[in-house]
Amino acid sequence: MAFPFSISGTVKQSGRPARLRASGVSPLILGAAILAGTALSSVMSIPASLAQQAPSALVPAALSSAQVVRATLPNGLRVVIVPNRLAPVVTTEINYLVGSAEAPEGFPGTAHALEHMMFRGSAGLDKDQLAAVGTRLGGSYNADTTEDVTQYFYTAQAQDLPVLLKIEALRMKGLTLSEADWSKERGAIEQEVSRDLSSPAYLYLQQLQSILFAGTPYAHDALGTRPSFDKTDAAHLRAFYDKWYAPNNAVLVIVGDVNPVTALDQVRDAFGAVPRKTLPERPKVAPVPPPAKTLSFPTDYPVGFATLAYPMPGRTADTFAVADILSDVLGSQRGALYDLVPQGKALFAGFEYAPKKEAGFGLALAAFPKGGDSAKALNDLRGVLEKIRKDGVPAELVDAAKKREIAQLQFSANSVSGLAAQWSTALAFHNLDAPGDIVAAYQAVTPEAVNRLAANLLDPAHAVTAVLTPEASGKPVAGKGFGGAESFASTPDKPVKLPDWAENALSHLEEPKPTPQPVVSTLPNGLKLIVWPSHVSHTIQLSGEIRQNAAMQEPEGKEGVEDLTEGLFSYGTATHDRLGFQKALDDIPAWESAGGSFSLQVLTPDFEKGIALLAENELHPAFPEKAFQIVRMQAAQGQAGLLVSPGFLFGQAIKTALLPAKDPELRHATPQSLMSISRDDVLKYYQAAWRPDLTTIVVTGDITPEKARSVVEQAFGGWKAEGPKPVVDLPAVPLSKASRANVPDKSSVQDSVVLAETLGLTASHPDHFLLQLGNEVLGGGLFSSRLYRDLRVKTGYVYSVGSSFDWGRTRGSYNIEYGSDPDKVGKALVAALQDLKSMQTAPPTEDELSLAKASLLRSLPLRRASLSSIAAQYLGLEELGLPLDNTDRAAQVYYKATGAEVQAAFQKWIRPDDLAQIVKGPAPTW
Fewest CB within a 10 Å sphere: which of 411, 473, 497, 829? Predict the structure, then answer.
């Protein structure tokens, strides 16, 4: 599990919800995941006053001014266009230099509310047309609101750039902002507030910011409050829009496979006529460090957290680069803070830096087991930080952090949308000319400067202390079903008439063309190697996966042995101890992880060094006895809290509803099973489960297939499989039946609802393509889907809703998920079931089917818009046992499918009356 929001204060708008997984979280990685969920990228954050001309060899072209086209239009719109040939894809990101800091007094969520209304239509493109255009584009579009900047970003096929620009220009020039639309959107945004108020972490960070930034606009979270939304009206939003949404208050970043000169002409055509405005004066943000204060929060987490927060510089401060390096050192696995973990004093420990534009804060945390000694965890945390404040940090860790930050810039070009985010953040948040301007500033950081800043910032007189204590909510109970009834207008059966410019660009659906295939080979030991060369940066990424299944492979009574095995990979190898191995990675530098899933990121010249270290860790882990004892104890302590946490109970309730008794997937570790495991058990499990003939490695980036094969074979060719292959595929399961369960969660104010059932087919059955196409109509198509329109747009019952299929080699399942206030759960259920059954009683309309086809077919190239997503796609296909050209096969089915075929597939495979209903929330809803 992770914090469901970033500690940057970013508010995410209306994105496709993440699929709920019916499984628990390993206590060994829980703390790491929570901290990682708060992580902020700060690799390009430096004030212009510190930026100097950096050596060109250290600044990747994609992050310097050398390869970009930039201009400022007569109306003041700043434009930056960065070419990237990774895929035929483009990302546009328009940054309005306004956020919650500019909200009127008493209306802290105004910027967030306006962000929502930007999806409700504008002059020349109403909300239905916008939804239809968005679906036809097949891309991903979203927005976020921060204290300082509001961002709207879209990723689509490069050929559709003019359409993206037209959408943003219309929204900039003349937003509709009707009272009727706001009354509907208010319901959805209040559901979003309920969702976040259900998170103890959100409540903690909200109160933390109110203390650290007291007396400034940053004291109010960017999300807003229900009372402020209740008194907000369309006129209020119009006034905010008219003041701040102007071309001379915006930065437009375009990244992708485009001709920069042509793209700039298209920008001029779209935005040139939008008038500039006289901007109001901005509020000042200059927080005063607060006196020390202590907070406490009950949570539904499996483990507790002792935290210390300190005021730190903002992104435009002269000391930002020093603060960023300090935070890297404090969070280093070679540092004293993380060392609390191998000492057995914390389940996890780390540090994160959350810089906003004008101010920031740092957060140190240590995880302790449920029922553990929070006071001791706090004292250990304080002791480490106080020693650093007095004695400073090791110079070698400062040098390692600088080297990593500079090297990390090279990876930015490996994702089209990621590169756009880098440029947007550099220009809009940090007042830079280019992200690469940070290199010289990082180079200038000295250990002395880091130590001076640590002595000043880590002052206990200004620390905000907080303890987040796990609290059980109770056991799941059976339910009688949801009450409530509601009637809805059926989905419109007439096509939405698009504007001519959109119709001309998007109406024709081209027959899909085959995707170029990777180079595939198999080593003599059975290891499969997939190589996809791409030369957008001088970096190489490796992703590997061993086909394993703890449910099938863990011995009876030794549940949890896989978790222990995975947790021990970070404790060194036969050649290097824990600190020595991490230093070897820092010296390259390389980013590496080992285990059942393993990975490597490294600069091109250092690929052989990096893969040698990866292979050393993967094939020759030390699994030291002392570390084993500590990891086992930590795992047992964490598991004790996990087993009574609402999140785990929710996952188990979903599994129990879908699976037969004694199914392997119902197995889970207990403190007792974990403590019964010996180091010999770990060694036996590792020897049985880690095999080259069950392993796939994908290499992407700046390398040839021949070179990749040579280096991989040198590193992994000596790995031999012993004994017969283990059985890793789960047995098939019968079709599930309707059931109902409620999982209490006292910390929530909103219910999380899952409707789920098993299916009689898997991903190898050709009908699964038709089901995917139909699901795009029903719940996968975001703004244009039936579920989204009926449960959010028309009624405001939910903030997020979606439906999805989960495919495996031997099993398949279907689910609908949404979040809703308890009194709206039943109404939302009625609407969702009605929409689902309508897929069986009539074929999708021609317009719906056309939209769904366009969405899926145009989205296929987008899945290759980053090296990470390319690798994930190939590894996913290998895991399912599907051919690597499966995407092309899907495209042909989507292109040729009829509405009658989709209806028939839903009639044959989907069983609305057998859906299990599982709710996690504050109180039973029946």
Answer: 497
